[in-house]
């Protein structure tokens, strides 16, 4: 009887498997974005919108598509999800640089194509600043500028290349920040310093007018406080010593 029950159970399982259709296989399915079937980089510039079009290939049925910007899913309208889906980035700005847009098959997210935006733009740097610094103090001049491709920076003094002294000048540079530090400024450091940022797409400048002022006299604060305390105590002792005469007068 045990063998019969086991055979009956297997028979019922087999019948259920026959009745339940297998999910369609995604083998052979492909996606393409702007006619690219593999991940790619798209170079563009600031301003004009760009369109990304995702298309299902080798499919015999309706396939739902999903779009992602980085890790966040992009909202799509109902008529823009099946077999072909389009998104538009408008306007293109600096924050889109380096962002990955991915089109995925809804039922098998391993089927996907990604595009990385390479947004190119020149450095945006201008203006001027005046700094008053006391002699023998330290000062730092800071330029902040973004660009793609990354720009090269040169520091000028009074329109000439700045001669750097290892013991007094220090340069610091990242992709967005350029700094010039001067230790213990002297009167000879007076002048106009220019941060010149150059890239293949354009240049930018920022001027710093450095005015080195005379050292301010340093008052011996502790000595002054001590003198005031001594004078105050002397006056108090004098009053105490002469209190009898003061009372007689009154």
TrEMBL record:
<dbReference type="GO" id="GO:0005911">
    <property type="term" value="C:cell-cell junction"/>
</dbReference>
<keyword id="KW-0812">Transmembrane</keyword>
<dbReference type="GO" id="GO:0098609">
    <property type="term" value="P:cell-cell adhesion"/>
</dbReference>
<dbReference type="InterPro" id="IPR007110">
    <property type="entry name" value="Ig-like_dom"/>
</dbReference>
<keyword id="KW-0472">Membrane</keyword>
<dbReference type="Pfam" id="PF00047">
    <property type="entry name" value="ig"/>
</dbReference>
<dbReference type="InterPro" id="IPR003598">
    <property type="entry name" value="Ig_sub2"/>
</dbReference>
<keyword id="KW-0393">Immunoglobulin domain</keyword>
<dbReference type="GO" id="GO:0005886">
    <property type="term" value="C:plasma membrane"/>
</dbReference>
<protein>
    <submittedName>
        <fullName>TMIG1 protein</fullName>
    </submittedName>
</protein>
<feature type="transmembrane region" description="Helical">
    <location>
        <begin position="223"/>
        <end position="241"/>
    </location>
</feature>
<feature type="domain" description="Ig-like">
    <location>
        <begin position="123"/>
        <end position="213"/>
    </location>
</feature>
<dbReference type="GO" id="GO:0050839">
    <property type="term" value="F:cell adhesion molecule binding"/>
</dbReference>
<keyword id="KW-1015">Disulfide bond</keyword>
<keyword id="KW-1133">Transmembrane helix</keyword>
<dbReference type="InterPro" id="IPR036179">
    <property type="entry name" value="Ig-like_dom_sf"/>
</dbReference>
<feature type="domain" description="Ig-like">
    <location>
        <begin position="24"/>
        <end position="114"/>
    </location>
</feature>
<dbReference type="InterPro" id="IPR003599">
    <property type="entry name" value="Ig_sub"/>
</dbReference>
<keyword id="KW-0325">Glycoprotein</keyword>
<dbReference type="Pfam" id="PF13927">
    <property type="entry name" value="Ig_3"/>
</dbReference>
<dbReference type="InterPro" id="IPR013151">
    <property type="entry name" value="Immunoglobulin_dom"/>
</dbReference>
<dbReference type="InterPro" id="IPR013783">
    <property type="entry name" value="Ig-like_fold"/>
</dbReference>
<dbReference type="InterPro" id="IPR051275">
    <property type="entry name" value="Cell_adhesion_signaling"/>
</dbReference>
């Amino acid at each position: 009887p045990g063998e019969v029950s086991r055979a009956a159970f297997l028979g019922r399982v087999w019948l259920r498997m026959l009745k339940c259709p297998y999910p369609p296989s995604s083998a052979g399915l492909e996606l393409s974005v702007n006619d690219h079937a593999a991940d790619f980089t798209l170079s563009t510039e600031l301003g004009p919108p760009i369109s990304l079009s995702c298309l299902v290939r080798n499919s015999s049925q309706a396939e739902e598509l999903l779009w992602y910007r980085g890790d966040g899913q992009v909202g799509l309208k109902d008529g823009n999800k099946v077999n072909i889906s389009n998104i538009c980035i408008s306007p293109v700005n600096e924050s889109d640089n380096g962002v990955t847009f991915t089109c995925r098959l809804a039922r098998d997210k391993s089927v996907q194509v990604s595009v990385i935006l390479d947004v190119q733009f020149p450095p945006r740097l201008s203006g001027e600043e005046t700094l008053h610094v006391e002699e023998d103090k330290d000062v730092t001049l800071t330029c902040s500028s973004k660009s793609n491709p990354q720009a090269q920076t040169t520091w000028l003094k009074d329109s000439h290349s700045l001669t750097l002294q290892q013991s007094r000048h220090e340069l610091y540079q990242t992709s967005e920040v350029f700094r010039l530090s001067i230790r213990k400024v002297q009167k000879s450091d007076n002048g106009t310093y220019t941060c010149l940022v150059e890239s293949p797409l354009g240049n930018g400048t920022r001027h710093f007018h450095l005015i080195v002022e005379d050292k301010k006299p340093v008052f011996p604060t502790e000595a002054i406080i001590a003198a005031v305390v001594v004078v105050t105590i002397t006056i108090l002792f004098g009053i105490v010593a002469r209190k009898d005469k003061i009372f007689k007068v009154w």
